[in-house]
Structures are given as C-alpha cells and as structure tokens.
Amino acid sequence: MSSSLTFYECKHCSATGTCTNGENQAACRACARLNELPFWRRSGQVGLVCGCCRGLGKAELFTDRLNKRMAPVLAVLLVFCVLTLIMVTSIFNHQHFSEILAFGSAIIGTVTGFYFSTNKNDL
Ligand SMILES: [Zn+2]
Ligand SMILES: [Zn+2]
C-alpha cells in the first residue's frame, strides 16, 4: 500500500465519499455550499459528494496540500529576496556584486524554469 501513503481516509465522510454530517444523515452546509447549491437548498440534502475529499473517500494529507500551496509562494518569495539582494548590492556597489548576481540569476533561472516546465505539462 505504498501508493496510498500520501492519502488518508477522509474523516469528514468516514471514507464513504458522501457527506452525512448534517441533520438526519443529510449533507452538512459546508458540503452543500461546495456542491454549488443555492443557499435555500443547502439544508436537508442527502447523498451529496463530500466536500473534503470530493467524493473519493480519501483525502490528501494536510501537509501535502500545504506543500503544494506553499511551494509557489516560497518560490516567489525566494525570487523576490534574490532580486532585492541583487538590487541592494548593486546600489551599494558591493564587492561581491558579480558573484551575487551570478548566484541570484542561477536561482531565478531554476525557479522560473521549474514552474514554466510544470505549467507546460499541465496544459
Ligand atoms: Zn460535509
Ligand atoms: Zn470525505
């Protein structure tokens, strides 16, 4: 079962894929909202797809989801920090400016190359 290591059984729907957390085994309002039902139909819906796992019964680990969301943010922050570092060193005519510029452009090239290549694969 090594392939399912990154998934856990959804606690919200007890791995059934159907939300029964509302009244009388109906879907809860959060899942009704995720199923894009208008607010006047959100209560008492039975058999709605679980909004936490999208009906799979298994959900991704929270840390995995966090990593997927954090990675682009960290990449942008890293590029921003490197650009700031390059700007500061160029303004103050720092003695290591050329090294920092080479190092920084290598990092930026890696980061942007990684994200452009993954975006192309998704399309
Ligand atoms: Zn629910
Ligand atoms: Zn679920």
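qc> Residues 1-5 have pLDDT under 50 and may be disordered.
qc> done
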